[in-house]
Structure formats: structure tokens, C-alpha cells
Specification:
It is a single chain. The chain has helices at about 30-35, 55-60, 75-85, 100-105, 135-140, 145-155, 170-180, 230-235; strands at about 5-10, 10-20, 45-50, 65-70, 95-100, 110-115, 155-165, 185-195, 200-210, 215, 220. By secondary structure, the chain is an alpha/beta fold. The protein is globular and about 40 Å long.
């Protein structure tokens, strides 16, 4: 058995998560995406592409009681995700599926919301390659690339359904072009900055399948104060009770 750690899920003291040092661990990107995606009354089910240890479904369960399905190709990650769901007694809400996203989307019913924290790096960006195969798959486009993710989303989204993603700003134009190629119209973008005065390092984007033109650039999100502490907005996303 590889070394495992059980942590509280951020400030949600009623939730815990098992993580492994040799596998992908959730980060700020995960939290931002779970808080960014639009969950309206039309959403009956949320699909999480590449759920890994189910951090996004667990966080989403704090926002909604809708059904959440996590798709994951790595068997060890699937086992960890299932244990995390069971440990938090969310088996009735969260369902983990061991499958390739590309195969899953060919054979399943359509939904109103897909979320995805995808591998950020193209294969060939050698400076980012990790020797650990599990981390390689989580961080690099080895099993699925950006175009395949967006094509799969368009395949499984209902009309006016939404795809929410987090990614690096240097791939924003590529993402917008691919969304439009597969009939997903970008509707919302929010840039995230490590702190005031620094360049954006993350951005959030949501597109609507067969949606009308019209893109909203939302207010900037700053992750840290000058002293290095997380900002109030981010701490609220972590589940902290903070007075305005």
C-alpha cells in the first residue's frame, strides 16, 4: 500500500479526503473550478471529466444535491475516488466510473453541465514531465488532449448545456477556437492572479453548447494578499466562515 494521508477537505470539517503523495493531489485550480461552474435549476447531473480522487465532486456536493458522475481512466485513482465518496457517505449522490472519457461520451445520455480540470501540458513540454506515470497522465495530454476533451463535451452536452474548465492563460485562444469549432460558445471568463500586480496564471472559462454569442469577462480573482495569505474570497471558497 502506497503512503496515504487523510485530510479535512479544506475548511469543511464534515468532509475528509484521502490523498497519496505519488498521485495527483487537488490544488487551488480544483477549488476555483468547483466554485466557478454554473449550477442552475436545469442541471440534473454534473459530469466531471478526469475526476482523479473525486475532489471536485466532493466540493460540488457542498453546493448542490444534484447527481455528480466522475469519469476517471486510471484504476488506482478510481479506487481512491470510490473510497473518498464512501468515507463521506455520498454514495447516493456521487458515482465514480472507470472509463476513458472518449468511450464514455459515445454511449451515454446527455447532461447540462460538464466540468474539467484537464492536463495542462502538451506532450513534448519536457521541462514539466514527471517520472511518475500517474502524475504524467494527470498533468500531460497523454491519454486525452484538449481538443478531444472539448469534442467529448460537445457530444454529451444537451442544447444550452455548459462546459466549465480551468486552464493556463497561454492556451486561452486555443480553447476558445476549439470550443467554437465544436459549437460551444464561450460565455464567461475569469482571470485568476497570484496577487495584485502579478500576471494572471490561471483562468476559468465556461461555454454553452449551441449558445448565442456574447462573452462576459468577470472581475479579476486574486488568490493571495501581499502577505502571502489567501484572500477572503478564496478562503470563502475553502469553506471558511468569514464576515464581510
Amino acid at each position: 500500500m502506497k503512503e496515504e494521508v487523510i485530510n479535512y477537505l479544506l475548511a469543511y470539517e464534515n468532509m475528509k479526503i484521502i490523498q497519496r503523495k505519488d498521485m495527483f493531489n487537488f490544488s487551488l485550480d480544483t477549488v476555483l473550478l468547483a466554485n466557478f461552474c454554473t449550477i442552475n435549476k436545469d442541471v440534473d447531473e454534473i459530469i466531471d471529466f478526469g475526476t482523479n480522487n473525486a475532489a471536485i465532486p466532493l466540493l460540488l456536493s457542498q453546493r448542490t444535491d444534484k447527481k455528480i458522475t466522475g469519469i476517471e481512466i486510471q484504476k488506482e485513482a478510481v479506487n481512491l475516488a470510490i473510497r473518498n465518496v464512501e468515507m463521506n457517505h455520498l454514495e447516493n449522490q456521487i458515482h465514480i466510473v472507470h472509463d476513458d472519457i472518449k468511450d464514455y461520451c459515445k454511449n451515454n445520455h446527455k447532461v447540462k453541465l460538464v466540468v474539467c480540470n484537464p492536463p495542462f501540458f502538451k506532450v513534448g513540454e519536457k521541462s514539466h514531465i514527471n517520472d511518475n506515470e500517474s502524475l504524467q497522465i494527470a498533468r500531460h495530454e497523454i491519454m486525452i488532449n484538449l481538443e478531444e476533451i472539448i469534442a467529448c463535451a460537445s457530444m454529451i452536452l444537451e442544447n444550452k448545456g455548459r462546459l466549465s474548465m480551468v486552464h493556463r492563460p497561454d492556451r486561452m485562444i486555443e480553447i476558445i477556437n476549439l470550443m467554437q469549432k465544436y459549437d460551444i460558445e464561450p460565455k464567461r471568463i475569469r482571470f485568476v492572479y497570484p496577487k495584485f500586480g502579478k500576471d494572471s496564471h490561471i483562468f476559468l472559462i465556461e461555454g454553452m453548447y449551441k449558445g448565442n454569442h456574447g462573452l462576459k469577462i468577470e472581475t479579476p480573482l486574486y488568490a493571495h494578499e501581499d502577505n502571502g495569505q489567501y484572500t477572503k474570497e478564496v478562503r470563502k471558497m475553502f469553506g471558511e466562515k468569514i464576515d464581510d
